Amino acid sequence: MAKRLAYTITHAPQRLIAGLQTRATIGPCAAIHELWHQFCSNVGAKQSYGVCYDFMDGVYTYLAGLDVKVGEPLPDGWVSIAVPEQSFAVFEHNGDLSTISNTWSAIVDSDDGIKSIEGEAWDHSAPTLEVFPSNFKNGGGPVTIWIPLVPKAT
User: The organism sits in which domain of life (predicted)?
Assistant: First the structure.
């Protein structure tokens, strides 16, 4: 029997994340790599997020961003998205960032990933998050993947 992917359940407050966005396809995507390169050239060492939302036919919006306050002026070209207060299943990705799509596949497709959480299901109406610690630019810290949850229908 395969070992279940390790995760924690965390309840997070509402947050506003702002940054640069692109449309991307599921799986490894050069557009996301380029977006992070552009984003990181303008931002210091701060906790940052990859926000995935607006999924349709294998394409979605990916935003590389930071926490901001409501009403805070944004740099030219930046957009913001509100992430609602919600419970999340939090999984860790350890290893080279080029392999994060493998971790995503294990979370989404494996019976030992998101499907194994009793009483909870993926809330596809809410954004998912990749959370990068402030020291990530220098190779520190794992990336965490936050999957929004809702109670499973009975």
Answer: Eukaryota
